[in-house]
Amino acid sequence: MFELCIPEFLGGRCIPSTALFAQLLIGLINGSFYALLSLGLAVIFGMLNIINFTHGAQYMMGAFAAYLLLQWTGLGYWWALILAPILVGITGMIIERAFLQWLYKLDHLYGLLLTFGIALIIEGLARNQYGSAGLPYTMPEQLQGGRNLGFMFLPNYRAWVIIASLTVCLATWFVIERTKLGAYLRAATENPTLVRAFGINVPRMITLTYGFGVALAAFAGVMAAPIYNVSPQMGSSLIIVVFAVVVIGGMGSIMGAMITGFGLGVIEGLTKVFFPEASNTVIFVIMAIVLLVRPAGLFGRRA
After folding, report:
1. What are the start-end ranges of the E strands in the chain?
2. What pTM does this model have?
3. For residue range 215-272, what is the model confidence (pLDDT) as tens digits?
4. If DSSP codes are grouped into helix, strand and coil, which group holds residue 296?
5. Total domains in the fold of the chain
6. 136 lies in which domain range?
7. Does residue 170 form part of some domain?
């Protein structure tokens, strides 16, 4: 073990390596959720041009879907990890068909206001039914315990969250950027009339894309349930930070959402070690600096 000493102007204290690695782990875990949620937002904005403020509520719905599947049907974590994103994704497609399809040609503000209102309704219904206190969700038995790496203790479930998030993010990037389906999706956003000429049902493609973006949020919600418990406020407390991550990475940038999500999670974790007072604002400070230097975001395309 070793200690890392901070200069006098930053507090002049020494931090044990165990605390440093623990905060790095927490940063990677938070970054996993930032990456998944910002990826869903980037997919929806990049393909549909909608700023989806309902994303935090849909993240919460994924956690509640896992909780209800366990309470009502006895289906555990692994089934919930498959079924909850599908169920919540279907509700997202219903929202897209019922409300959002009428807003695509209007200013972004209309979509933001509508999705913000829907988020308030969903959160209010959940709070009215289940209260504000968190509901516990059991960690899967196969992922309980952890491993001693010598310099730190790594819980198995935390390691699973990081690996699963990274795998899903890379798979999504590959499908959108390197496959024929992804090419159709990108073409549909640039020239839907031309894509229709090839016999592709563009409205259906848009609906499925929105449902997929919502399913990513629900997937993150299921993985968050054993760590943070299930609460109606779990999405609203996270969505502002995730929007900052998306802005820093570049609105609609898939790679930007992934890299920025994990990177800012680590930066936030390290800030808690070296300068705890700034840990809650460091992401927003970075956002302000990036917007001043590069308004399109680090990976965004200039208008």
Report:
1. 3-5, 14-16, 146-148, 153-155
2. 0.91
3. 999 999 999 999 988 999 999 878 999 999 999 998 878 889 999 999 999 999 888 8
4. coil
5. 1
6. 18-144+198-293
7. no
